[in-house]
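Table 4 source record.
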Amino acid sequence: MTQHYFHTDHKVRLDKWLWAARFYKTRALAKAMIEGGKVHYDGERAKSSKMVEVGALITLRQGFDEKTVRVLALSDQRRGAPEAQTLYEETQDSLQAREAKAQERKLLGSAPDQRPNKKSRRELLRVKGSWD
């Protein structure tokens, strides 16, 4: 018998909710991202002590991706990923934008076929050295 750990009637801090929803590995990292302006609550910069409400829109950046999620439930406990995914729902606009950006990155950024050999490495160093 599984016991649900999420609630809709109590309050949870933003940093704790982001950690419980498994967007960040630690609360300290979640707090650093909030303070760095990487997380917006209902379109505005927030503090880590902001109390999360059900139905709120949270926009957060993770690496190259920017996600917009709607809060469906509250939790202050970190559990497995399948349970954590029930706390939020990503908006359709966010999904489409992330897929478009991923496709763009895939087309633009191609890795070199091989490592540079000694001659090409020296040429690279010569070019880089002239820019300093």
